[in-house]
Amino acid sequence: MTATPWEDDRRRLAALLRDMAAHETSLLRDGTRPWTWWLGRAVVHGRRHGYVNTLLIGAQWRAATDVRSYEDWRAAGRQVRKGETGIRVLSRTGRPYAVFDIAQTAGLPLPPAPAPNAPPEGLVHRLAGELGRGLPPVEADSVEYLVLAWLGLEPEPPVFPVHAFWAGAEAGDRILRTARRVHDRVRDPSGGVLPDAHRYFRARLKASWVPAYLAGRGFPAAVQRRRQIGCAPDSPHALVDHLRALGHADEAIVASGLARHGASGRLHAMFRDRAMFPIRRADGAIAGFLGRRRDGADGPKYLNGPDTGFFHKGELLYGLHEVRERLAAGARPVLVEGPLDAIAVETARAPEYAPVATCGLSLTPAHLAALADAADLGAAGVLIALDDDAAGRSAAVRAWDVLSRVGGPLDLASLHAGQDPAGVLAARGRDALLQALRTTVPLMDAVVDAAAARAGGPLTTPEQRLAALRAACGPIAARPSGAARQVVRLAARTALPAPLVTEVLADHLAAG
């Protein structure tokens, strides 16, 4: 088959980029540039990009400070400005694609990174020695330098030979992989168990049922990659054996919520044959996982890991870390139930929304506190997009007890036919989901209606109508700014005169 002109251009660009990287490597090998030059690029870009792309970014834009793809900037709530020329890099398969520096984007400043805690003296050196066992000294020294720099500790660079004869993709990527693992171990309260498990789940994604299932629900490969979704194999022991081979003790594996002791005393994996969603702390470290079974399989649709010393379901919101930059730019938090709902809202490509999921739990004060730390709730308020069924409406009403203290607007998205956001995306597409998010009613409407229904029943007698009115006064008193709307609604619902409704509400407010 004859290649198209576009395919020929892409191949020529890929060859040009490979030549550019080879030239940059030759400058390191012949001593024209010191090895510390590449380490400086790796400090800035090495946590997101591999060896070759750190060279390509440095060669094309030396002042770049934060380089991401167009889609990743959208997910962060920023837009690449029109007319900007991308920095060309190579994918793992060798395809060229464009990335952009933050200076090429528009939006409010990103939130500052959490202040790092200095690790115990000698910990980085010890871990670098353990995880980099067998590395040549120049690579081991490079790993230690990168980790200390990523931790914000401003280390002095080691002294390297003038000619970096080791420079190349094999050594550079090995250094970066090892440095990331050491960094994970230092930052991670599980001692590296959870990051190692995450890498294991990610490595098993491609050959599993999960990518096709997610793509069928409207979540393409780019979204799956951005959300770092993985797959737990259908094996009771494979993960445990893998973690043991990496040097993790059984006690650490159990304490991380990844395994439990069976009746025979043998360890069994907590998650089997499930799509795996990492749940992160505010600093980005993985705290635990949520696993979704395949359709038709036995067991609960979603399985949370158990509470551990660092994973507390009532405190963590899925996706909060991933949308923290969008929230800092003023996006409105969207409260959903599950991870697929959160990813569906993100897939709607509306930077004004920042989805977080309670993972099937009722909203807690700790959840709200975590959200308030990341967003200006007094300005943005909260949009609730739970399932449009009896359970979802009940959950929205229960959330009122926690959300009523929020200063900003509280609204319900208009989902229909019993669907959740992921269901709307799969059935009707992105535009329909976006329209549902933008068509809202005040949450107080649902809360007032629920209170009136509980107290007034069928509202067939004057006593029932008055009981409904009095019960509805409680939630209105919590947010009196919405009282005028609710007076009109209650008068219509109870068939009581609006002046009487106003009088009863005023008496309630005065008594309170």
Automatic annotation (TrEMBL):
Domain Toprim residues, every copy: 331-418
Cellular component GO terms held in the UniProt record: cytoplasm
Chain segments annotated as coiled-coil in the UniProt record: none
One BP annotation, GO: DNA replication, synthesis of primer
InterPro entries noted in UniProt: ArdC_N (IPR013610), DNA_primase_core_N_sf (IPR037068), DNAG_N (IPR013264), DnaG_primase (IPR050219), TOPRIM_dom (IPR006171)
Classification via Pfam families: ArdcN (PF08401), DNAG_N (PF08275), Toprim_2 (PF13155)
Signal sequence residues: none
Tree of life domain: Bacteria
MF (Gene Ontology): single-stranded DNA binding
Name used for this protein in its record: Toprim domain-containing protein
Organism: Actinomadura physcomitrii
Record lineage: Bacteria, Bacillati, Actinomycetota, Actinomycetes, Streptosporangiales
